[in-house]
Amino acid sequence: MKxxxxxxxxxAIREFEAINLKRVGYSVVEAGSGxxxxxxxxxxxxxxxxxxLDISMPGMDxxxxxxxxxxxxxxxxxxxxxxxxxxMDKISGLMIGxxxxxxxxxxxxxxxxxxxxxxxxxxMQAPKSAxxxxxxxxxxxxxxxxxxxxxxxxGQNIELTQVEFQMIEYFFNNPDVALDRTDILSKVWGTNxxxxxxxxxxxxxxxxxxxxxxPSQPQRLITVWGMxxxxxxx
Length: 234
Hints:
Elements: E1 3-7, H1 11-23, E2 27-31, H2 34-43, E3 50-54, H3 62-72, E4 77-82, H4 87-95, E5 100-103, H5 108-125, E6 136-139, E7 142-145, E8 150-153, E9 156-158, H6 162-172, E10 179-180, H7 181-189, H8 198-211, E11 221-224, E12 228-231
Parallel strand pairs: 1-2, 1-3, 3-4, 4-5
Antiparallel strand pairs: 6-7, 7-8, 8-9, 10-12, 11-12
Helix pairs in contact: 2-3, 5-6, 6-7, 6-8
């Protein structure tokens, strides 16, 4: 069953989210604080697919919890919930490992659409049981294994979230091709994604920190001004 952990200190909001998610088939685990959420995650035997984290919580806030959860799992889907509208809050959440964000107040329709979209990506991240004919893509010092869902640079593993892996897979399937933000957004986040294109830019920044020798002067994942990005093999 699809399992989601809701971390929200306000009981009424937590109940609203839980009711709507249960209605469409999610198994819901609830936590009223970041500390409780970590304890649940560390002792969970059935596996949690997605965590829905409120940013503004007493004690351990959503940013700190996101960092701790990401340390424990690269494949966990993480959505940040915030009542704040400042751009920095959204960017900060994505840079520390969140996959998406929703600004309060939000409708049940938006909540379910964003959770369903992320769950589909989490499902895709599961390793395939049988080898495929073209399991690996090798571009220079990088090797992308599509069956194991791994990326190696000079033989060293680079840990990627499921969103990062899908982005890299799209770039590796289209080397030296300029891909615009809209195409990347549709391919990775889905054609019905509610959010904004800047989520692509933030994830590219995060990827550069992992794949580039000098992220401030990228040589592989480069910007195509006025369009988007491309993976440079030259």
